[in-house]
Design the sequence.
């Protein structure tokens, strides 16, 4: 199971690499004395989530191997039969509704992620459970741009 460099910065912290990322971050924050919602807490949380995304999904973003993109499509319930290029995979993935926090947790636990039938259902779930992924760097990362959805004003279809 790959480890992110974020947790490696804290060698005294025994990370459970299969536990949900929020749970592990909260444990670390408690050990380090980061007050919830403080600037320090927010900065470290963003760094943690970015590092975990990179470990579990970063290689896909850089890959020029169609089989790698097919693997992600299959993991997210997309049939690859007609997907003959990476561009077609990216287009197909735009229609997938998955919470990025759940996707990271699923990969950490080696399970399948929960998928939603619509952007509206994903938005409702995300808001109710406060499972937000930081947007700061999403515009510079094509995979995040593909998978992130509008949680504030979701499309209803």
Sequence:
């Amino acid at each position: 199971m790959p480890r992110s460099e974020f947790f490696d910065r804290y060698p005294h912290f025994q990370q459970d690499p299969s536990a949900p990322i929020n749970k592990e971050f909260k444990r670390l924050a408690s050990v380090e004395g980061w007050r919830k919602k403080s600037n320090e807490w927010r900065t470290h949380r963003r760094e943690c989530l970015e590092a975990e995304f990179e470990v579990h999904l970063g290689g896909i973003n850089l890959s020029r191997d169609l089989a790698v993109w097919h693997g992600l499509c299959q993991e997210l319930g997309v049939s690859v039969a007609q997907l003959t290029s990476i561009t077609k995979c990216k287009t197909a993935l735009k229609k997938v509704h998955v919470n990025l926090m759940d996707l990271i947790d699923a990969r950490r636990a080696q399970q399948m992620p929960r998928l939603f039938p619509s952007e509206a259902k994903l938005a409702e779930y995300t808001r109710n459970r406060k499972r937000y992924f930081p947007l700061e760097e999403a515009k510079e990362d094509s995979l995040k741009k593909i998978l992130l959805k509008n949680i504030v004003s979701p499309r209803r279809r």
Q: What stands out?
A: The helical segments are 5-8, 21-32, 39-62, 66-75, 86-93, 100-109, 119-129, 142-147. The chain is about 55% helix and 0% strand. The radius of gyration is 16 Å.
